[in-house]
Design a protein that fits this description.
Structural class: alpha+beta
CATH topology of the largest domain: Hypothetical protein af1432
Number of helices: 25
Largest sheet: 6 strands, mixed
Helix content: 40-55%
Oligomer: single chain
Shape: elongated
CATH superfamily of the largest domain: Hypothetical protein af1432
Number of strands: 20
Radius of gyration: 42 Å
Bound molecules: manganese (II) ion
CATH architecture of the largest domain: Orthogonal Bundle
Length: 718
């Protein structure tokens, strides 16, 4: 068992600024809490967390990680609570211990059927902070080293299987080759003891035949390299029984053909030297075909770089050579810990902390190589998810097919509401782009931006959809209210009344609405006419004449025969029958400048249509009812006329506003508006506009046509 001061010395050897007091306190706290608990081996339980901390010192982890290692079983196995840890060791350590505890609980629930699910939770849990995973791997390593003390075979087997399928691949993924190799071999011993024994025995036989080959080969290879003028450090080892066995299985070869029993590491000063070593070695020794791999120009996903080659070595023994620089070696040994920036409290400032996870996920997308260790683990469960990263390296977990808009809303509602664009992996991309695993997403926001209803078509998260809908509803309401208010104002003004809140308040109940704004919305939507509101507030404002349903009636008293008298309320049309009432048909809304005809209807007088109105077809066989009419330009100029347009507008915030602004700018007034059809993308509306004449309306139509919100616009006919 490592003593308190030994542990501290190890940490201080690589981190002179280590939190000595914190580590000491954790040591004492854990020892007290575990008290007299014993391990299966009979050792005091406390020996376990200390060993775990000891393993981690080899990876130069920060003080918080060492403290976490010491405390990692206190919540699960002792009376200590998370709150205790927090008050004694602070938020950072408490969160790490909590993370490890959660992983431990997953392990306890584990059974074969649930493993996939567990694994997913595991990855998610650890992705919060990679230090949690480091502690968990060291914990697992120590448990595997002491696995044989566990009496129940079934339990040993379960732990070994879990190690093989989950922890070893994870260790490799984060580049911790040593831990991975040892975990695998320990699990192999449990899972297939016969196979392992056979491999070990074979190794022993070989050793007996050739003596200790490793040191001999090191010496020879060093000599060859020195002759080639290369300064190198050569080391060598036998491969583990598990890796030998796996290669035998994979290549279906016998022991003698394996070039993987011994591996030699050659460390040189530069990348250039790596390739020089290759030249020298291939010159000196016969090459084993098909064994060369250039991981320098094509690094492994976990960052591993080296040249690998197989040669028939000095004693005609197949050996593997791994050639790399010192820096590459550091990464090969320490993996993610090599990037560890303990000076900044363990949080890498460049977001690289998660690079391995990004790459892990990238692999999941593209893995096809059977050698991929990941094939051992259950990765399918990731297929319904994508993992993306903020520029700071925070992980955002989204459903598949998610877009930058989903991402933005997942980061924060405000970010979503104001997003205008997104950089994916540094490149500006459309908001509808489907995100891929490992994408780094930077959301570009603008205060002026608001949610766009078209987003709803491509977002996949409920949160994004709900926010967009809510916003669109609010915005629409606002617009309808504005529109309704302006229709009312116009209507009241014409009748010489003024629109007051007080007046409107008095009739809210009558129209069954709660607030003034609600009433405006009803008018804006066309569910209520301005006239109806006016007459409700001022019953005396009732019209003197019968209403036509289009509200554009010319009073009977004004109708005159022949050429209308100049000025003062004359009829703007020539050709009417004396004494007969005249009104404009609601179907075509004839305007001065239009060619017009009248249709005589018994009891209703003359209805004026445009000559191209569809309704006229109904009277084709009754020529006696047709009147040839024309406009009195001067009279017509005295008043405004209502033209009706059929318009299709994009269903997006602002488009109704654009529409009414555009009409007002062109001196038209909206007197009525009705939505006749509505889809996700578009509104179809009938709008009545007060204009001087047909030219005026044509000008307005032309202006609206030019507006991006307007899809199509035409005069309504029939
Ligand atoms: Mn433990």
């Amino acid at each position: 068992m490592i003593r308190q001061f030994e542990l501290l010395e190890r940490v201080k050897a690589y981190d002179p600024n280590a939190d000595e007091a914190g580590i000491n306190a954790a040591y004492v706290f854990a020892m007290k809490m575990h008290g007299s608990q014993k391990r299966a081996s009979g050792d005091p339980y406390f020996s376990h967390p200390i060993e775990v901390a000891g393993i981690l010192t080899a990876y130069r982890v920060d003080s918080a990680t060492i403290e976490t290692a010491l405390l990692h079983d206190t919540i699960e196995d002792t009376p200590a609570s998370l709150a205790d840890i927090q008050s004694h060791f602070g938020e950072d350590v408490a969160q790490l211990v909590d993370g490890v505890t959660k992983l431990t609980r997953i392990e306890f629930q584990s059974d074969r059927d649930k493993q996939a699910e567990n694994f997913r939770k595991l990855v998610l849990a650890m992705s919060e902070d990679i230090r949690v995973l480091l502690v968990k791997l060291a914990d697992r390593l120590h448990n595997m080293r002491t696995l044989h003390y566990i009496k129940k075979e079934e339990k040993r087997r379960r732990i070994a299987l879990e190690t093989m399928e989950i922890y070893a691949p994870l260790a490799e993924r984060i580049g911790m080759q040593e831990i991975k190799t040892e975990l695998e071999d320990l699990a192999f011993e449990q899972l297939n003891p016969e196979a392992r024994r056979a491999v070990v025995k074979r190794l022993e036989t070989l050793r007996a035949l050739g003596g200790e080959l490793v040191p001999k080969i090191i010496e020879e290879v060093s000599g060859v390299l020195a002759e080639g003028g290369i300064e190198a450090e050569v080391s060598g080892r036998e491969k583990t029984p598990y890796s030998i066995w796996r290669k035998m299985q994979k290549y279906d070869v016998g022991f003698e053909q394996l070039s993987d029993i011994m591996a030699f590491r050659i460390i040189v000063a530069s990348t250039e030297d790596c390739y020089k070593v290759l030249g020298v070695a291939h010159n000196a020794y016969r090459v084993v075909p098909g064994r060369f791999k250039d991981y320098i120009s094509m690094p492994k996903p976990n960052g591993y770089q080296s040249l690998h080659t197989g040669v028939f070595g000095p004693h005609n023994q197949r050996i593997e050579l791994q050639v790399r620089t010192a820096e590459m070696h550091d990464i090969a040994e320490f993996g993610v810990a090599a990037h560890w920036n303990y000076k900044q409290g363990g949080v890498a400032s460049d977001g690289k902390q998660y690079r391995w996870l990004r790459e892990l996920l990238d692999i999941l997308e593209h893995a096809a190589d059977p050698e991929e260790v990941l094939e051992h683990s259950k990765m399918e469960m990731f297929q319904d998810q994508v993992f993306c990263f903020t520029p700071r390296g925070d992980l955002i977990n989204l459903p598949r097919r998610a877009t930058p808009v989903d991402f933005a809303y997942a980061v924060h509602s405000e970010v979503g509401d104001h997003c205008v664009g997104a950089k994916i992996n540094g490149k500006m991309m459309p908001l509808r782009t489907e995100l891929k695993n490992g994408d780094q997403v930077e959301v570009v926001t603008s205060k002026a931006q608001s949610p766009n209803p078209t987003w709803e078509r491509f977002v996949v998260t409920g949160k994004a959809r709900a926010r967009i809908r809510r916003f669109v509803r609010l915005k629409e309401r606002e617009e309808y209210a504005k529109l309704g208010q302006s229709i009312l104002k116009r209507c009241f003004k014409e009748a010489d009344y003024s629109l007051t809140d007080k007046g409107v308040n008095g009739v809210l109940k009558k129209f069954d609405v709660g607030a003034i704004e609600d009433l405006y919305v009803e008018v804006g939507l066309g569910n209520l006419t301005g006239r109806a509101v006016l007459e409700a507030i001022y019953p005396r404002a009732k019209r003197k004449a019968e209403n036509d349903d289009d509200g554009t009636v010319i009073p009977l008293t004004k109708a005159r025969s022949g050429r209308g008298a100049k000025g003062g309320g004359g009829v703007p049309i020539h050709g009417l029958i004396p004494g007969m009432a005249m009104h404009f048909a609601g179907c075509c809304h004839a305007l001065p400048g239009d060619r017009i005809v009248g249709i005589v209807t018994t009891g209703r007088g003359v209805t004026v249509h445009t000559i191209d109105c569809d309704t006229l077809r109904d009277y084709g066989d009754q020529p006696e009812r047709w009147l040839d009419l024309s406009w009195d330009k001067d009279e017509a100029a005295n008043e405004l006329h209502v033209g009706r347009v059929y318009v299709t507008v994009a269903n997006s915030p602002g488009s109704l506003g654009d529409l009414s602004t555009m009409i007002a700018k062109n001196e038209g007034n909206i007197s009525n508006l009705k939505i006749v059809n509505r889809t996700i993308d578009f509104f179809d509306m009938l709008i009545d506009i007060e204009v001087r004449d047909v030219k005026h309306l044509t000008d307005i139509i032309a202006a609206l046509r030019a507006s991006p919100s307007v899809n199509s616009i035409d005069r309504a006919k029939g």
